[in-house]
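Blackboard transcription, Thursday session:
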Amino acid sequence: MHRAHGIMASWWTTALLACAIAGLYVFYAFGEAPYAVWMNTLFQSTTWRLVYAALVVDLILKSALLLMSRFAPITPTMDSVRSMQEHAELPASSWDRMEGWFKEHGMSPVIQGDTVVARRGESSVIAGAVLRLGIVLVMAALPFSMSLRTVQETRLVQSGPAETVFDRSVKADSVEADLPESFIQIGDKSIFKLEELAASVAVDGATHEITAGYPSKIGGLYWRVSDFGYAATLTIDGKPTGLMLDVLPPGRQDVRQIGGQTLRLSLAPEREIKKGLVTGLAYNLQSPSIKAELKAADGSYNDAVTLKPGASILLGGAHASITPSALFVKVSAVRDPALAILIAGVWTSLLGLALMFCRLFWYERRMCAVRCADGVLLGYSEEFYSKWAIHKFRRWIEESGTAL
Amino acid sequence: MFHIFIAGLRESLQCSIPLALLMFHPSIRRSSGMAVLNGAIFALLAGALIGKLPGMDSIMQKTEAWAMGRHISEAILLYAGVLVFAWEAGGSRPPSRHLTATLAFGFAFLAFFFEARSLWFFASDLGASEGTLYGYKFMALFGMMVGLQPLVLGFRPRTFRLERFLTPATALLAAATLKVAMGGVQEIEDTSLLVALSDGLQRFVESATRHAQGLLLITPHQFIKVPLGGLADYFSEDRISTSLLMLFVMTPPVLILWDVLSRPEPKTGGIRVAAERRLAVAFFRREMGFMAAPLIIVFITLIVMLHSVNASMNPLSEPTPMPIREEEGGRLMIHLADRLGNMDDGKLRKYVFLSGGSKVILISIMKPDGTLGVALDECEICNPAEWNTNAFGYAQKGEHLICKYCMTPIAISTLNQPGGCNPIPVPFEVRDDGAVVRVDDLMRVYKAAKELQKKGTHF
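(Written on the board underneath:)
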C-alpha cells in the first residue's frame, strides 16, 4: 500500500504516462493523418484506454495528496528544520524573542510548546490543483464526448417549411445575416467574412434565437447555425426548381443538374471597379444576381448569362428567371452528455493557467524554530528561488546580530 | 575503396568525439566508461548486422520508420541530461552501478547505431555497384572502428579536471548537442531532428486546434466568423509550433543552467577576515562560471541550429537583379535561358533597367502552366518608406511570391494579373527564346505606378 502510494505520488509516474501517450503520437507522426489515428488508438485500444485512465487517476490522486500534504499541520523536529533550505543555530536566550523576530520578517508565528511555525502562501498549491482539475475534466469528458455525441443537421429556408431534427419539428421564422449591399472583392481569394448570422427558429413551437457563435442549449440539445446560403427558385420554360445555392463566398461555383442539363451557377458581380491598375468586383449580397453557365455537349461551358432577380433571360434557348432570393440556414443539433463537463474543464484549465502565472510571486514560505537543550534551531524554506531564500535568511540572521 | 574508409572514420568521429566528453568526466568514466565503449562497438556491429536479422528486411525498406527511430533517439539523447538532472534534483537515491552502466550503454548505442546502419547501407550499395561488396563493408567497418579512438583515449587519466566544468547532466547534454549539431550520414539522406520536430509540431497543433474547435461546437467556417476563430487561426500558424520547438530544444540547457546559477553562495559568516570571506565568494562564483560556460555554449549552439532550421524552412529567395539593356527597336529581351540557367526551373529572376535617372526593376518567372510572367518589382498597394529599402519588391518562397513589405504570399500562377498585392503587370510579347518588353510600355507602367504611389492607392 505504501509502495503504491509512493508510485502514484511520484511525478515520475505522471511523466512516464504522459510520455507514453506522447510517444504514441510520435509513433504515428510519420504516417498519414497522425492525429486522427492517434485519437482512435488512444480511445479504442484497451491498453491505451488503461494508460489514459491511469493518467487521469494519477492526476486526481496527485492533486489530493498535494493538497493534503500542504494543508496538513506541521510539527517541526530538529531533523525537519535541519533539512530546510537554510537553518541557523541560535543561543537558547533567543527563544523569548522568537515570536517578535518572526513577525518582524512578515511571518505570523504559531507557538506550540517548544516549536514555532509560520507559513505564508501555503494556498499557492491551489493554482496547480485547479489546473489539474481542469485537465482532468477535459480528459474525462473527451472520450465520452467523442463516442456519445450525435449530430443531426438540416437546412431551413427563411419562413419555409418545418423539418424534423431529433424527432423535433424545427422551422426558421427569420434569418438575420449582416450581408453588405456592396461587397468589393479584390484579387482571386475571397475575403468575405460574415460578422453576424442569427436565425429565429421555432423548435416544437417555441421560438429561440440560434446563432453561428456559441451553441444555444434548447431542450437538452446544443443548437448552432453552421452554414447559410441563398434559397432561390429557378424557372426554366415555366418549370420552377427550388435551389439552395452554395455560391458563397463570391467566386464559388455550384454545379446542378436541372431538367437533364448541367448548370454552373455563381454570384454575378454588379459592377467592376478600377482604380489605377487594381481591379475589384462589387457584389450585391443582399439581392444577388446569379451567373449561369450551361454545359455544352463537348464539356465546355457556354457564355455566362446573368439572372437578375425577377427578370427573364434566354438561357440555352429557354426562358429562365430567378425569384428574389431568400436565405436558408443549416442548423446543427448536437446531443452530447459530456459537452458541459468539457466546457467546464476548458474554463477551469484557463483559470488554472491564469493562477499558475501568479505562482511567479505566489509561493509558500515556511519558517520553523525548535527549542532544544543546546539552544534554538531556526530554519527557513521557500517553495521557489531557493538561492535568494537562503541569502535572504542569512542576511536576516546577520542583521539581527545580537538581537537574537 | 579508401573513400568509404574515410567516410566511416568521419561518421565514427562525429559520434565518438561528443561521447568522449562523457569519458572526460571522471565519475562517468569510472562508473560507465566501459559501458560507453561497449555501447558504441555494439551499435557498430548492430548497424552492420541488423539487415541479416529475420524480418528486418521489410522494416529497413521503410524510410519513415528509420527516420522516426533516428529522431526519437536524438530527442532521447537531448533529454538524457534532463533526466539525470531531474533525478538529482528530486533528491532520489543515486541509481545503482548496473543501472548507470546500462543507461550509458544505451546512450552510446543510440548515438552510434543509426550512423552505423546508414553507412553500412551506403557501403553495401557502393560495394555492389563496384563488385567488391565485402571489401567496401570491411573498409567501412574498419573506418568506424578507428574512429572510436577518442573513446579509447578517454580512459587515460589526465591532469585537466573537466569536472570543474561538467556535471554528469551537463556532460550528457553537451555530448547530445554536439552529436545532433555534427549530424551524420543523415545530412545526405534525411532531414534533421529539428526540421522533423517543427513539421510534426505544426501538424499536431493545427489538428489539435481544429479538433478542439469541433469538440466545443465552434467549428471554423470558410466565410462565417466563429467565436475564437482568430485565436484558433493564430494557434494553427507556424509561430506556435516554432515556439514549442524552441521550448523543447531550450528546456534542457535552460533548466540545468538555472540550477547551476541558483546555487546559493557559501556560508561565510564563520570567516572572521573580510578578505577571506570575499575570496571564498569569488572562488565560488568562478566555479559557477566554469559550470555555466559549457551550458552557455550548448545554448548558443542550439540557438544557431534553430536559426538555421528556421531559415531552411522559410527560405525567402531573392536573386540579385541582372542588368538588362535596350536592344534595337526600343525593346528589352528576357531570355528563357540565361546565366542562371533555364527559366523552367521555376525560380524568380530580377532584371534592372536604367533609364535616365530611374532604376526600373523587373521580375520574371515561369508559371506552373509553363507560361511566362513579367511584372514590375513593385506592389501598387504597399509603399514602404524611403529608408526601408529592404521592403521593396518581391522574393520567392516555394510556390509563392512574397511581398516583402506586407509578407503577403501571392500564387505565382496569378502573376500578370493586376489587383491586391500582386506585382504590377508589364505588357510583353512571347517569342520562342523568351519575352520581349517594349521600353515605352515599361516606362509608361513604371511612371503610372510612381504616380499612383504618390497619390496613395489604398482601397
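Lecturer's comment: Residues 274-313 of chain B form the longest helix (40 residues).
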